[in-house]
Amino acid sequence: MPSSPYETLGVSRDATQKDIQSAYRKLAKKLHPDLNPGDKGAEERFKAVSAAYALLSDEEKRGKFDRGEIDETGAETAPRNYYRDYAGAGGTAGRYESAHGFQDFGDKDDIFSSFFSRRGRGQQSMRGQDSHFSMEIDLLEAVNGAKKQISLPGGGPALDLTIPPGTRDGQTLRLRGKGEPGFNGAAAGDALIDIRVRPHPLFQVDGEDVRYDIPISLSEAVLGGKIRVPTMDGAVNVTIPPNSNTGKVLRLKGKGIRKPGGGHGDAYVTLKITLAPQADPALAAFVEGWAAGKAEDPRKNLGGNA
């Protein structure tokens, strides 16, 4: 298994965010567990691809990885020159020492007397600072809502987080009172969670609408019929009109993303005629003798150079 997220996604270190997203979508479509039921190898590769995308799609984390500050799992690594600097400093690396001792601040007795005199006058209360975190979620979790847990750096109990239906990429969720503790009895700060939504291998978001391709057989395209089509909130029956070409778009009203003011956008399904991987001799013989099919020129409107 490649140890570098670049190798996992098959992109170079100077890849653009568009390159990274494109590589992720291609691999996710191929490896998604829903498309490979029971295939543990594909499931593990899908997890690795998702983890690699989570790191490289975050510019801050990507920069830290490129500088060697974190590894491919996002865990911090020791600075490259830490041990050398520690030894050269006689074991004092990480400590602050003033070149002039207390001379920078005047007489040290004045410092302590001033400090204790201020404490004697009473301490002001101060609200705790807000804590900032980030969380990556699936598109369907963002659309339909979900219950998640987030583990905070430094330990402590995990926080329960409710993802509201219709959450957008880049939206910030607030957990009141879950930030840094307050001072001298004041209230704690809040935990602010920045949400990043992973691209979905099938659905492509377009505002409140969603667009995606659905394969159909040749007989379904010619004769029409009913097929089951996945949507953001479950599969539905869709009628394919007879004589449907590749590229025909069907609108599924109200099957898009929840709108902030209520209601939902629409789903737009593009049909793609897909032939069987193995040639059908009977079909080939029929087409060979099909005079009407040969009479029609599908490229007649492309101009004189076609």
From TrEMBL:
Q: Which domain of life is it from?
A: Bacteria
One of the GO biological process terms? protein refolding
Q: Where is the J domain?
A: 4-74
Q: Which InterPro entries match?
A: DnaJ_C (IPR002939), DnaJ_domain (IPR001623), DnaJ_domain_CS (IPR018253), HSP40/DnaJ_pept-bd (IPR008971), J_dom_sf (IPR036869)
GO CC annotation terms, alphabetical: cytoplasm
Q: What GO molecular functions are on record for this protein?
A: unfolded protein binding
* Designated name of the protein: DnaJ domain-containing protein
